[in-house]
């Protein structure tokens, strides 16, 4: 069946077609194996799209087409000689500009950094290159991933934000420029733009993917993950990073297998409204309710606060979820930002970034300890409920991408400018919990993509991927 599509009365409609199937690398690779296409031909098709569309979408801040062509030519040879490196061999990718790619700049939309190329690859990029993936370029981010906004537009409606902070990564996949990008999430920065841009966004468990070589934001919540045209592309990307570079310090990486798991219908899911529920527009609410009805009719029990006291208690804790997460992030983001200010003065950061940093600088160690205690209470209750359900379900964003009223020059710098990229309220909880989460592009609202979010307990990534596949097949067929 098609995606569930709803419209608000008198809404500004986008151009998203609910029947759209983004061009996945998994599908393209079948033609490589059959000898009817090649990685170089596939790359040239992606480059043509970038050259045609990116002057408007502005997903990429740097491209290296010649380097990508050399990599594609090497992949062509491997396919001809039947010695491919992995299921990602020949896959064109964009890398979020917070993550180092050797030979490409890591400017991060900041006045602090030049266009000089990074010398070394981040762990994830090292792993993806070893798997044969092709680095097409770096994707736009807000300043240092949390300050003044990038110029990126939503490919389904240029009036709208592409989300933050993985703005360019989400837009590049949504526009079909590349089948896979790498994003990162500390609060809501991967799942939200995945929802806005019809991506399959996958935030693995905390520590499951090595974050070495990524500019830090809040180390106790920093995640990286794939944003992809298909669930198979997303899992393959995460698996290759984990299997080749391992998890981050203290974490062994993903468990499971390289192949996408078979679809597994869950028996019970816990529905979490979180503080975001009050922000939903009527059409988004109706779309989620229709999806819930469909899932229930397929034999899945969805329980909520009205039928489970622990879920009600968790919801009460999560009423402050975004505030708790923001406290932790802004306290931890002080370093290295304080050093940047000490070295370069007040001009080192935008007004937006300084206003957010001031929040962390005003906190005491006791304030931080209190936020960590609150996070631990949430984690403990999530684990308790998780022992009797197969996962959690909620929205992946509080509606479709908003029209952001950005000035014509594309630059916004004021204390609350980061809020233009959308609410984090549905997303902060699972960044704090550290469990895996997906945004699945199963709905459309006002002619724009809208994702549903599936969440699991830490280190249940493979199991949650099997459930995500069941949702994908049950709704889209």
UniProtKB/TrEMBL annotation:
Matching InterPro entries, A to Z? Amidase, Amidase_dom, AS_sf
Query: What SUPFAM superfamilies does this protein's entry cite?
Result: Amidase signature (AS) enzymes
Q: Which domain of life is it from?
A: Bacteria
Which stretches make up the Amidase domain?
Answer: 44-464
Gene3D superfamilies found in the cross-reference section: Amidase signature (AS) domain (3.90.1300.10)
Q: Which family does it belong to?
A: Belongs to the amidase family.
Q: What name does the UniProt record give this protein?
A: Amidase
Q: What organism is this sequence from?
A: Terrihabitans rhizophilus
Organism lineage reads as:
Bacteria, Pseudomonadati, Pseudomonadota, Alphaproteobacteria, Hyphomicrobiales
